[in-house]
Amino acid sequence: MNDIKVNSEVLGVLKILDKETLHRLPDDVYEYLVKNSKEDLIPDIPYGTPLNEMPISREAQAFVTMLNLAFFCKDGKEKETIMKRIIQNEKKYNS
């Protein structure tokens, strides 16, 4: 998948985050996404749409999940829950 498309899709997801959450993302990561995306590829995602129902690629979903783990999770319990889901999905899709 084209990195520019994935980065654009990730920006579409970031657009619906509240400011407090978005401020946890380091500026250099956000700037990288902006510089390596195209405005016309950023999807318009309605607030409240579950990640698996967003009009984005699996690659963008994985990228958002990694950003969530690295920057947005509030505590270890939340990270543990996400990691369990990742492992379950790995088993489901790689079996």
Protein architecture, described:
The chain is an all-alpha fold and 95 residues long. The chain has one domain. The chain is 61% helix and 0% strand. The protein has five helices and no strands. The chain has helices at 3-14, 19-22, 27-35, 58-72, 76-93. The radius of gyration is 13 Å and the shape is globular. It starts with a helix and ends with a helix. The relative contact order is 0.16. The model has no long low-confidence stretch (mean pLDDT 93).
List the helices and strands and how they pair.
Layout lengths: L2 H12 L4 H4 L4 H9 L22 H15 L3 H18 L2
Helix pairs in contact: 1-4
Largest sheet: none
Tally of DSSP helical segments:
5
Mean pLDDT: 93
C-alpha Rg (nearest Å): 13 Å
Could you spell the SSE succession in H and E letters? Answer: HHHHH
SS strand fraction: under 5%
Inertia-based shape: globular
Roughly how much helix do the residues carry, as a percent range?
55-70%
Stretches where pLDDT is under 50 for at least 5 consecutive residues are none
> Structural class, from secondary structure content?
mainly alpha
Alpha-carbon distance between the two ends: 23 Å
User: How many β-strand runs?
Assistant: 0
Number of domains: 1
Structure characteristics:
61% helix, mainly alpha, 95 residues, globular, 0% strand
Quick rundown:
It is built from 5 helices and no strands.
